[in-house]
């Protein structure tokens, strides 16, 4: 949460163009998704610290992590904010490929079909 707040402070000061700050905020959001803290995870996106479709070094987005966790609420919240369910990681996996939860897979498949 601290890195998200620092990233948001930098954004307000006009320093948001730093890829390092965006990656720090993304990593903090990723950890929040994994921990089940959706509110903190969405804060950086809402404040514009990083794109909802930002990818880490493996090509994974927050939607990939939410799907892997099986969090229907996080998946839906990210889709509502413009997350692209068709983005493939470097491994070739989409978020739908990374879940074992049928409801999550159904929502992601429907989102891809609606594109």
From TrEMBL:
Domain of life: Bacteria
Protein name: Ankyrin repeat protein
Signal sequence coordinates: 1-22
SUPFAM superfamilies (UniProt xref): Ankyrin repeat
ANK repeat ranges per the UniProt record: 58-90
Native organism: Sphingobium boeckii
Lineage, opening ranks: Bacteria, Pseudomonadati, Pseudomonadota, Alphaproteobacteria, Sphingomonadales
InterPro entries: Ankyrin_rpt, Ankyrin_rpt-contain_sf
Keywords: ANK repeat, Signal
């Amino acid at each position: 949460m601290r890195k998200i707040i620092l990233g948001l402070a930098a954004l307000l000061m006009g320093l948001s163009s730093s890829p390092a700050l965006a990656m720090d905020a993304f990593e903090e959001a990723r950890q929040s998704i994994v921990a089940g803290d959706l509110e903190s995870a969405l804060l950086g996106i809402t404040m514009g610290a990083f794109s909802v479709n930002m990818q880490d070094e493996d090509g994974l987005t927050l939607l990939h992590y939410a799907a892997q966790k099986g969090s229907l609420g996080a998946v839906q919240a990210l889709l509502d904010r413009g997350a692209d369910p068709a983005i493939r990681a470097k491994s070739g996996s989409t978020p739908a490929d990374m879940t074992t939860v049928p409801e999550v897979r159904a929502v992601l498949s429907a989102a891809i079909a609606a594109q």
